[in-house]
Design goal:
- By secondary structure, the chain is an alpha/beta fold.
- The chain folds into two domains: 4-96 and 291-310, Rossmann fold (3-Layer(aba) Sandwich); 100-282, NAD(P)-binding Rossmann-like Domain (Rossmann fold).
- The chain contains twelve helices and twelve strands.
- It has helices at 13-20, 38-41, 58-63, 82-87, 100-115, 118-126, 155-168, 182-188, 195-201, 221-226, 244-252, 291-310; strands at 4-7, 24-27, 47-50, 69-72, 91-93, 148-151, 172-175, 190-192, 204-207, 232-235, 258-261, 280-282.
- The two termini are 27 Å apart.
């Protein structure tokens, strides 16, 4: 029997079976968020398979000196203090690439749903209020030919740009800390602009940048005021990038036309003001939630765990 590991949330049975070929596995089948009990559950464990629900910080590392590997099945890792792990010799990995296309699909769908007022119109129909037609009934904004703005132009941002440019004939503008290579820009029909120009020019703005302290509330009241009254905002990045209270106010005042959110500050809690505005589409952080993609994410975390304890090269090691 190999070293003991903890699988911190419920995962597919075949993932557990694969891990059991190499490790003594403690699987949190009850799927409760362990929170303050995580350190207790990790006693005796050399590795942990985590999601975005678990906080790996200095205090936890102090309580679990035997921990040697932290492997996340998510692409984001702002719940892990990588520097503290590095100082303790704990290897950390995430799961990039495997969720790029699925997340881009969802982001584009969320943007379209906000622009075409799908949530508003469905609620209207379900309430039994549809009794007649009118020329402007739930008239939204077009996607085809509209200007697509992307804040953050990594793998997912580029995948969204490709969908807009090739599939919908959208001019693409973007802002990123570093510009793409000219040939990549050309393939995506994309043009780099400064942040304020992005806000002013985009018909549909999609946020796909990683969370960092510098990115906290990078979209707030000032930024929303720069956007077109007809514009939409879609956030599939991380909670905290948008000031949710400012967004709710902007939607209520029609500063912008609509929004689509998959991530929130303090999730799974969310600002109640977001529930009071009709011109928003809300989903519970499910952008990567297709069965094939979630299996691929989990398998990549398993690949990293196996490599960490068999002398192999961890495929997506964050702190070599």
């Amino acid at each position: 029997m190999g070293p003991k590991i903890l699988v911190a949330r419920r995962v597919f049975p075949e993932i557990v079976a694969r891990l059991q070929q190499h490790f003594e596995v403690d699987h949190n089948e009850g799927d409760e968020v362990l929170g303050a009990r995580l350190a207790e559950r990790l006693q005796g464990c050399a590795g942990v398979f985590i999601t975005g629900s678990e906080r790996i910080d200095q205090a936890l590392l102090d309580a679990c000196p035997q921990l040697k590997a932290v492997c996340a099945m998510t692409v984001g890792f702002n719940n892990v203090d990588v520097a503290a792990c590095t100082a303790r010799g704990v290897r950390v990995s995430n799961a990039p690439d495997v969720l790029t296309e699925t997340t881009a699909d969802f982001g584009f769908a969320l943007m379209m749903a906000a622009a075409r007022r799908l949530a508003e119109s469905e609620h209207y129909l379900r309430r039994g209020e549809w009794t007649r037609w009118s020329i402007d009934m739930f008239a939204g904004s077009d996607i085809h030919g509209a200007t697509l703005g992307i804040l953050g132009m990594g793998r997912i941002g580029q995948a969204i740009a490709r969908r807009g440019h090739l599939g919908f004939g959208m001019p693409v503008i973007y802002h990123n800390r570093s510009r793409l290579a000219p040939e990549v820009e050309a393939s995506l029909g994309a043009r780099w602009v400064d942040k304020d120009s992005l806000l002013c020019e985009a018909d549909h703005l999609v946020l796909v940048l990683p969370y960092s302290p510098e990115a906290h509330h990078i979209i707030g009241a000032r930024e929303l005021s720069l956007m077109k009254p007809s514009a939409t905002l879609t956030n599939i990045a991380r909670g905290g990038i948008v000031d949710d209270a400012a967004l709710a106010e902007a939607l209520a005042k029609k500063t912008i036309a609509a929004a689509g959110l998959d991530v929130y500050e303090g999730e799974p809690k969310l600002n109640p003001a977001l529930l009071e505005v009709p011109n928003i589409v809300l989903t519970p952080h499910i952008a990567s939630a297709s069965i094939p993609t979630r299996r691929a994410m989990a398998n990549l975390a398993v690949d990293n765990l196996i490599a960490a304890f068999t002398g192999g090269r961890m495929p997506t090691l964050l702190n070599p």
